[in-house]
Amino acid sequence: MSPINKCKSSKYNTKYILTIFTLLKPMKSNRRIKWLWDKRIVTRRYPVTDKPTETYNWGWFYENGTHECYELFNREHMISSYKSYVWHISVLKHINEMNYDEFKDACIFISNIDNGFTKISMSMEKVIAMIDNVYNDDSERCPPNKVRKVVFKLGCGLERHEKRIIVGQLIGNRKRFNSDDIHQSMQYIHQTNCRVTVASLSRAIECSRPTLYKVMNDEMRDEMKRLNELLKKDEELQRKELRKVQGRHQEESTSREALDRVYNRGVDNQVPTNG
Predict the structure, then answer these.
(1) Cα–Cα distance between 231 and 212 in angstroms, integer?
(2) Which of 26, 32, 106, 168 has the fewest CB within 10 Å, making it most exposed?
(3) Rounded (10°) angle between helices 179-191 and 218-268
(4) Per-domain residue ranges for the chain?
(5) pTM
(6) What span, in angstroms and rounded, lies between the C-alpha atoms of 160 and 156?
């Protein structure tokens, strides 16, 4: 039985919005996500009005895609630009009901590099200006969001490679797939900390490489390059952190050895006394 049909369910509530504060696995970074959850701040929202084509125990499939699934801080990648910061706090406002003070406190907390959400130091003056602009925007426009065809429930119990198989089966089993399908497969491959290649995409979507080459355009190739560069930066950052930890351990070990030598010399130089 396929992973898809094995978990199929017939129930779905179109108004179901799930915010989970405890099921997320701890981030490898020092991200202080619990601070947001303790404030009852929503960081994830499922589609509200879009109805799925198929419903499963693990999540939903949208034949025509949905832009209504918002997820914040569920990956290890951190905010790396002011533009990215504005998008994150715009989503925060969109999926939460907060007054100005609550919104401002949350946004300032996220902007602090020590809290693990951003990898850049941001000017407080610019941060306050961006907070005010976002909060005072009454256009009620939804923040731009990539289309999703497969949405997994939080805590569904599936490993990342199992999710990739399901995405490939749902998208690849259809006679036609488009750029959104390829983009989503790229994201799931990237989430497994693997390089995105034509070979890995063809396996995920279950189509031939020549077919992919025909469909892929410059934008897709640029996205593939961008994701692989992000993966490379993350790997370099992890190696750097590992070297720091190893360096601290080496220093501590050297210090202990030096103290031991001093102590041993002191013991050896003691003059014996007659009892």
Answers:
(1) 22
(2) 26
(3) 10
(4) 9-155, 159-240
(5) 0.57
(6) 11
